[in-house]
Amino acid sequence: MNNRSNGLLMRSLDGIERTGNRLPHPVTLFALFALMVVLASGLFAALGTAVQHPDPDEGVIQVESLMTVEGVQYMFESAVDNFVGFAPLGTVLVTMLGIGIAERSGLISAALRAMVMSVPKQLITAALVFGGIMSSMAADAGYVVLTPLGAVLFAGLGRHPIAGLAAAFGGVSAGFSANLLLTSLDPLLGDLTIAAAAIYDPSYAEGMNIMMNYYFIFASVFVLTIVGTLVTEKIVEPRLGKYDGGIGEVPEKLSGIEKRGLLAAGLAFVLTLAAAALLVVPDWAPLRDAGADSIIEGLNPFFASLVPIILIMFFIPGYIYGRITNEIKDDKDVANKMSDTMAAMGMYVVLAFVAGQFVAYFEKTNLGLVMSVSGAEFLQGLGLQDAGIPLLIAFILVAGFINLFIGSASAKWALMAPVFVPLMMAMGISPEATQLAYRIADSTTNVISPLMPYFAIVIAFAQKYDKKAGIGTLIATMLPYSIAFTIIWIIMLVVWILTGAPLGPGAPVMYP
């Protein structure tokens, strides 16, 4: 690596790290934002701030102050409801119950190892990238399982291990929002988006569902796998050169009992999938409204039931695998593993409490709606009311920059959705498209953010093969993935917009 460019890169990263370290903890950050909303509501209400609702029938929207007797009563009386009613809280915790069983029984780890070890050597890079992208179905499991496995696989094949680590890390982190299946991220962000859309148009929000980006993220898996493979083999690996570290490990093979467990879990998954299909496909299916006007509307009961379905789809194969491998012996083991999963979600629960207060205050005071209408009027004054594509690209770049400092996808979206979703709706861009633009930004800059929670762990993995590896090493290695994924995703989004294809079931790109 060139010393001059490395020094410049390190100085830039040091500045980002110093700035990021000055930010409060996300819990404190949301508490401060909630306080700011209270103070701002008092100030703007005193100034008589008001805007005309885009729908003339709705009249004038005024800022409501929380710095009144009624406002203080509301904050105390609604604190519990604001927490319990925080959109992603229940959906995330419920889905994690099923994912936790699959992960803690060892099913996720074994499945990832089986996938990347069963393909020809020529396809190992593509398998790593694909496996990394798909690992988002198990939340953060890919970081601690697939990333070091990628390095071990490449070392065993005589290739540079850090290139294998980079391929896996690029798929896991930069491709986090893509998947062939729905993951916990879909209900987590989707519920926030629907709640934000309701601020501007409650009737439109009622017709939305958490599969709003599914078609796009499904197609993204194949495109990003190709792009990630090319970046690894044409840019990253040639730059790293030949590896002379002398570590030629062979990844741990699946044992006989693990193979039997995977086979049984696979069969259980197929049977569970078939049972789920019976709940929605036939005309008499309980999760289908046969009297609906359209197929999409007829599937609304299914969309509303996706969270428990996701739980079951992970729980049953995970339980079967655990029984075969003796990781789960009885109901006590099941309860303990689910309990351990919930214990690991403790920080998220704390964050949900303060974020729930902020979101509720923001909606109660009408600040979100006033800001959205005012922002839309400002952009319209600049002549950008028809600039859907430039607006979305600008939003991707802004959200990606914010992601360098605040890693939590839910924390950022809980903050940004109430502002940007109504704003984009006022500019003619659908909530579904705004959420998708956010997901693109949130994924692509993960791999170049030193403040991303798993960044330090990945550096530790890299130092096993290069003692001098540090922040600059990893950033320089991962930057091509970040740039390539951002560009290709923006191109895909532009193509989607120009063709008018839906982003998901009943999810248009433009707001009617």
Automatic annotation (TrEMBL):
InterPro entries: AbgT. Signal peptide: none annotated. Pfam families: ABG_transport (PF03806). The chain crosses the membrane at residues 27-47, 83-102, 123-146, 152-172, 179-200, 212-232, 262-282, 302-321, 342-362, 387-406, 413-431, 443-462, 474-498. One of its GO terms (molecular function) is secondary active p-aminobenzoyl-glutamate transmembrane transporter activity. The keyword Transmembrane helix applies. Keywords: Membrane, Transmembrane, Transmembrane helix. GO terms for biological process: p-aminobenzoyl-glutamate transmembrane transport. PANTHER family: P-AMINOBENZOYL GLUTAMATE TRANSPORTER, P-AMINOBENZOYL-GLUTAMATE TRANSPORT PROTEIN. This is Aminobenzoyl-glutamate transporter. It comes from Alteribacter lacisalsi.
